[in-house]
Amino acid sequence: MSEALARRSDPVNQWVTFRLGDETYGINVMQVQEVLRVTEIAPVPGAPDYVVGIINLRGNVVTVIDTRRRFALPPKQPDEASRIVIIEADDQVIGILVDSVAEVVELRASEIESAPSVGNEESARYIQGVTSHNGDLLILVDLNQFLNDEDKAQLDLL
Amino acid sequence: MKADRLARSTTGWQDQVLLFYLRNLLNQTYGQSEALPAERTDSDAVAASQPVLSAPAALPDWAQSEFQVVYFRIGHTVLAAPLTEVRRIERLDDSTRVTVLPGKPDWFQGLTRFQGEIIQLADTELLIGGKRSISLEDSHRHALLLNEGRWGLVCGEIVDMVRLRESDVRWRVNRSRRAWAAGTIIDRLCVLVDPRSLIPASRSKNLRVLR
Prior knowledge:
The complex is a heterodimer of chains A (158) and B (211). With 158 residues, chain A is of the alpha+beta class. Helix content of chain A is 15%, strand content 45%.
């Protein structure tokens, strides 16, 4: 009985991890619909600079976000390892372009520490927490905060 | 006098600028007489000859009658921090893995782990001076782990550790600017840092476990 109670109070969630530069990030598996190889992405003139373009996903138009630009990292040409992760956040389906997808990890809530928040920077919104994994630190991203209201409105106009 | 001897023995314009700054810092003292006005009466002359007592400096709570400090180097400058605020000093080397978080200020270097504990690394030189004066390699060799907030202040060489008395420090009266500078260690003309005031604390949160 106590074991069941312990499990409920310290739930385990699965996180899909991906690489951007030297760092590894994780997103909740429940929000990941699928992972695609990088195919032809059609640019959208006049779109915000963090939008790579749009793709056709089984008849649906999906906007692809440049996650590197979103995180203020230097740009990088997509290569064989690059992937588009199709996610659903706040009823919006978008694709995020990442350097590579790593693995799915299981984490207990107790293993996750809240991210440091200094000043009023935007990243404080979407970085949910950090955790140690395989000797490295994993940065957990809250996809529901990844785009602010203004971003979502702009994407709706594409 | 000591400052002048030091001035003659040091080289480089940066050291001259630093000495000028430290001399000005020393001059921010309490108990100094005010300058006499141009026209004064005899009663004014008597009053002027007496020392003006202003409010004493409010000492940090770690400034006991005796306390230990660690001298550390950042760039070309040596600073001091009270050891009561520092729980550990860790060495940084090529094997130290620092995880960079996106969108953070320049002084926020990232996260690392020491003995299994996640530590937030702050670039001390950027925090106090805004610019880096020497290479990263030379300037980032140690982290002073603070008691509060799982912060590590990144610095260069650890120079010395000594015991001081309260009277060895010229305490700052007004810390509305450079709140991190608690005072100047008179003997070494070295700024004594108040670590709690160094990290922008108003929105700074401790790392804590999410539930």
